[in-house]
Design brief:
Tetracycline Repressor, domain 2; mainly alpha
Length: 226
């Protein structure tokens, strides 16, 4: 196995310090000692300490996302979605300084986009089960924003009921109850969303034009009201 580069050693050392001691622990002296490099090497690689903090926070998030992506789904997509929410909140509370660095800015990091992709995969399974009342991207945006809000609120003011209350409120907003035997469009919409979620699997069956037309029809059915 190849030895880690100087940059990788610095990032890993800074990430360990940030995870264990917070932002204040990531000093030039501490990182230099942990990575076995001279201080100028840090500034050559990252420009300044904020650049290093950004890289370290992304490394912490990347570790978490990699572990989360390995989890095997259970037989209940809603339970998996709940577990994913709880894990995200726990990650934020365990790494408050890294979380603030990651999500206080306007631009999402690459690990952050990977985390969103994991969320979308969980929601896709809910859609495939006919339980999602809106598109996967729209539901992901709501869950993503809600999760960030809860983490920052809990970092500022602990509240043992907030996370579960917000989680269940969001699930009620984005999911359908088990389908009932009715002819209403409330029965049609989740099925349209479910078919929309698996439509990429028809790439060899439908032409591009047919896919585009079916996309439009399914979007209209998914947005139908009773």
């Amino acid at each position: 196995m190849a030895k880690p580069s100087v940059r990788d050693r610095i990032v890993r050392s800074a990430a360990d310090l940030l995870a264990k001691g917070g932002r204040e622990a990531v000093s030039t002296r501490a990182v230099s000692a942990a990575a076995a490099v001279q201080a100028p090497a840090i500034y050559r690689q990252f420009g300044d300490m904020q650049g290093l903090l950004d890289a370290a926070a992304r490394e912490i998030l990347a570790d978490y996302v990699r572990e989360k992506a390995k989890r095997r789904p259970s037989g209940d997509p809603l339970d998996d979605l709940r577990r994913g929410w709880d894990e995200h909140i726990a990650f934020g509370l365990a790494n408050p300084d890294a979380y603030a660095i990651l999500y206080s800015g306007a631009e999402e990091s690459a690990p952050g986009r990977d985390g969103l992709a994991v969320l979308e995969s969980l929601l896709t399974r809910v859609a495939e089960a006919g339980r999602l009342r809106m598109s996967v991207p729209q539901a992901a945006r709501l869950m993503h924003a809600g999760g960030h809000g809860v983490v920052f609120s809990l970092i500022a003011t602990p509240d043992p009921l907030l996370s579960e209350s917000m989680r269940e409120a969001l699930l009620a907003a984005i999911t359908e109850a088990a389908p009932k035997p009715t002819r209403s469009t409330r029965r049609v919409a989740p099925r349209a969303i479910a078919l929309r979620a698996v439509l990429p699997e028809t790439s060899r069956t439908l032409s591009a034009g047919e896919r585009q037309l079916l996309d439009e029809w399914l979007d209209r059915l998914a947005a139908a009201e009773e």
